[in-house]
Specification:
Largest sheet: none
Number of strands: 0
Shape: globular
Number of helices: 11
Helix content: over 70%
Order of helices and strands: HHHHHHHHHHH
Strand content: under 5%
């Protein structure tokens, strides 16, 4: 009975805090910022890569659990490597990278609200740039892990280790970085684990719901329908990142209440 009450109390607290913080609205902003700032940067980086992977398109199809028609529809959203590189300028890449920092600024703001911390100092932009680089690196590593050791017994384990293990490390490190070490690392680990577990849940939801919807929308509405479903999935990614961090905060709340967030 005590266990059930504990779960009910924590669930109620997550729901209450989530509504107060408008997590859904912030997740929608995350999805929009990701699409307009980070996607172009990832496309260029993947196009310039010496590997033979499909870059961002492969990451999206893997993350959404797409197969056959759905995978083809997503790949159709992106230009070929040669066209991408031939139409990209250095100034354009720099501009996209600078705008990409705004995504990290938005994530930092949510993390600070979750931990009831004041806004970071002006030089937080440097941390946000490093966080952006880390996020891009993780996405590319997750995609490239599917290209290494293909058709070997080691490949599935490698991909799981990079995707899940790397995800825990990324979201643990990202919170610590963006919060400027104002919260002890051990208190941030539950949120990182919860985020990765939520992302696994999002994969199953996408495989069962969004993937069939994407195929239907691609047939009915063409490229616009595909973009809308991908955008919805990105909103879901933002929701899991923020919801996972919030759940981690609520789970260790007794520790924080007793000792403060910095211990």
């Amino acid at each position: 009975m005590n266990g059930a009450r504990w779960v009910a109390a924590r669930s109620t607290e997550v729901w209450r805090r989530g509504r107060e913080m408008q997590v859904l609205e912030r997740a929608m902003a995350f999805g929009a910022l990701f699409l307009v700032t980070l996607v172009p940067l990832l496309v260029v980086i993947a196009a310039a890569s010496v590997t033979r992977g499909s870059g961002l398109a492969q990451w999206i199809t893997d993350g959404m659990g797409l197969r056959a028609e759905g995978e083809q529809a997503v790949r159709g959203l992106f230009s070929s490597r040669g066209r991408t590189l031939s139409t990209t300028t250095v100034g354009g890449v720099v501009a996209v990278a600078v705008f990409g920092v705004s995504l990290m600024a938005s994530v930092q703001g949510v993390f600070e609200r979750i931990w009831d911390l004041p806004r970071g100092p002006w030089h937080s932009a440097a941390r946000q740039a490093v966080g952006l680089a880390g996020l891009v690196g993780y996405i590319l590593a997750a995609e490239w892990s599917g290209q290494l050791g293909q058709r070997t017994v080691l490949q599935p384990g490698l991909r799981i280790a990079v995707t899940l293990g790397g995800g825990v490390l990324l979201f643990w490190w990202l919170q610590h970085l963006l919060l400027a070490s104002r919260v002890a690392g051990r208190l941030l680990l539950p949120g990182a684990v919860a985020t990765v577990v939520a992302l696994v849940g999002l994969w199953f939801f996408s495989y069962l719901v969004l993937a069939p919807l994407l195929v239907a929308n691609a047939v009915s509405y063409g490229t616009v329908g595909t973009v809308l479903v991908v955008q919805s999935w990105l909103v879901g990614v933002g929701y899991t990142i923020y919801g996972g961090a919030l759940l981690g905060r609520v789970l260790i709340r007794p520790t924080v209440d007793a000792h403060g967030p910095d211990e």
